[in-house]
Amino acid sequence: MRKLISYRKEIIIGIIPVLLSFIIYMGFPVGILVMGAIMLGVLFMMSRRGGLAMGAAGKKVKARKPSYLTFDDIGGQENPKRELREALDFIVNQQKIQSLGIRPLKGILLTGPPGTGKTLLAKAAAQHTDSAFVAASGSEFVEMYVGVGAGRIRDLFKEARELAVKQKRNSAIIFIDEIDGIGGKRDGGQHREYDQTLNQLLTEMDGVQGDENVRVLLVAATNRKELLDPALLRPGRFDRHIQVDLPDKGGREAILRLHARNKPLHPDVSLVKVAEETFSFSGAQLESLMNEAAIYAMRDESEVLTAAHLTLAIDKVMMGERMDRETTREERERVAIHELGHAIMAESVRPGSVAQVSLTPRGQALGYVRHHPQQDQYLYTKTVLEEQIKIALGGAVAEELHYGGRSTGSRGDFEQATNIVRTLIESGMSDLGIIHPEALTQEQWSRENGVILDELIKQTRLLLGSHMNTFKQLLQLLISEETLSGDQLRTQMKRVAA
Ligand code: ATP
User: Fold this and answer.
1) Chosen CATH of 329-497 out of 3.30.300.20, 1.20.58.760, 3.90.580.10, 3.40.225.10
2) CA of residue 74 to ligand 1 center, whole Å
3) Hey, whose CA ends up nearest to atom 17 of ligand 1?
4) 174, 311, 465, 488: which one has the fewest Cβ atoms less than 10 Å from its Cβ?
5) Is 239 helix (H, G, I), strand (E, B) or coil?
6) 287 is catalytic
């Protein structure tokens, strides 16, 4: 139905000549014919006007009132917030920039992973500058028919100006999420519709003048800046590029605090600890974590969110929903051996790092080991990367030691291990030395990959082989309890070693 509505213009254009031919064929008098044509014309004009209000070709490009969201409602992200505020001064201090002859800022590009708060920043920008706010997503402009996407871009700018006038504001912010949907590199001919949409966007941006009644600023977001057409990135178009990264520990804590504002917390909850345990979580994942913890509290008929609810929520966001999968005893034992392999290896190379070993199936995994990230880390040495590979290989090696062979349960681990090997090679830390990845043939890749993994499997086998007693002591406990804490694991490893 929606598709039908979006093609309304095309359908009407098609119907007019058919109807006229039919009328002539039936031999209607000329007067009625002219009247009919006029009525059809009016109908067409009305549909066009409706189409404009709704975005060309009937698809509604949503205009939203600026929601009352300020920069204080965005946790962490101090640098992007500062850079954005500075850029927005161009709108706020309009007179000053005119007196100095500075050309108006036309576009701000926010780049970064999903869920890091780019949309929130755009909304806060509208609030900060008291602008009308219109938002759309790149995918809304992608159409088969040449000119439809371009029409929608025209309408979006028009609508932003109209909304600002209606709301008695001097400026409008247009937010386009996933700009790569329309702003990708042009390929010179194959996709005319796509090229026209992008050209229209460039034309609209070029048309933005500083002395208009309503100043328009385009804020766009993308996770893939490298895909954007260079024409969009040149000065005078998207003048400012602001990187919005995953939050660091302090940022995560600030985001958790914001989303805990309306939730009663038990005194045993430490949001600092939760922030420590959620390395690489995005703002959206942290919001989801707090929400899931509240749902667990409701299931428990608890008045407050406890530390245990938050731990369950971290596992859920990290690993997916708990599954009620029936597994045989043999399967359960193999999964337990596999997970103990990861955990013992992790404790051996990074003592104190295991938070929990679990046999609870979640998402695709039949079991998992949760690690404490001790601190946020952005640079990795060769030793650290090799340790990560050995931890990933620990599961498969433990299965080999106990059963003489591997199972399909190691697929994900091998993918992780080979990805880290790739990082090692690309960072010039392999025996190949510093080399451009594109200069390597497929054969060289797989040979070096094999050499590195063979050596690390050998080391993992040696280490886990010396812990056969620990496996024996912990296996039954893990199977009966379903989870082992990091402390239980460490105590047992120490006892066996003594
Ligand atoms: P995408 O690239 O997928 O469009 P995005 O970067 O635009 O994502 P947002 O839509 O701004 O992300 O954020 C999604 C949700 O995550 C927000 O509604 C909010 O609940 C939460 N969130 C993300 N970042 C933050 C933050 N810094 N502070 C508070 N909440 C945040």
Assistant:
1) 1.20.58.760
2) 9
3) 284
4) 465
5) strand
6) no
Domain with CATH 1.20.58.760 in the chain: 329-497
Best mutation site among 67, 74, 120 for ligand 1 pocket (most ligand atoms within 8 Å of CB): 120
Helix (H) or strand (E) segment spanning residue 111: strand 107-111
pLDDT (tens digit per residue) in 41-63: 665 554 444 333 333 334 444 44
Q: Measured in angstroms, how far is the CA atom of residue 116 from the centroid of ligand 1?
A: 5
Confirm if 470 and 354 have CB atoms less than 8 A apart.
no
- Cα separation, 133 vs 130, in Å, equals 9
Pick the more confident residue, 6 or 481: 481
Q: What is the pLDDT of residues 352-376, one digit of tens each?
A: 999 889 988 877 788 889 887 666 6
Residues of the chain with CATH 3.40.50.300: 71-243
Q: Which of 210-214, 341-345, 368-372 has the lowest mean pLDDT?
A: 210-214
- Classify domain 249-319 at the CATH class level: mainly alpha
Which one, of 88, 98, 87, lies nearest residue 210 by Cα?
98
Q: For residue 25, what are the contacts with CB-CB under 8 A and spacing of at least 6?
A: none
**DSSP letters of 317-361?**
HHH-SB------HHHHHHHHHHHHHHHHHHHHHSTT-EEEEE---
Give yes or no for residue 258 CB within 6 A of ligand 1.
Answer: yes
Query: pLDDT exceeding 70 applies to what percent of the chain?
Result: 82
Q: Could you read off the pLDDT of 149-202 as tens digits, one per residue?
A: 788 888 898 899 999 999 888 889 999 999 888 766 666 555 555 677 888 888
Mutate which of 133, 287, 317 to test ligand 1's pocket (most atoms within 8 Å of Cβ)?
A: 287
Is CATH 3.40.50.300 correct for 71-243? yes
DSSP bridge partners of 241: 109
Closest CA to ligand 1's atom 3: 114
Q: What is the pTM of this model?
A: 0.72
> Cβ(287) to ligand 1 under 6 A?
yes
Ligand 1 pocket: which of 119, 140, 242 to mutate (most atoms within 8 A of CB): 119
Range 124-143 burial, b when 16+ CB lie within 10 A, else e = bbbbbbebbbbbbbbebbbb
pLDDT per position as a tens digit, 391-430: 999 999 999 999 999 988 889 999 999 999 999 999 999 8
Share of the chain above pLDDT 90, in %: 43
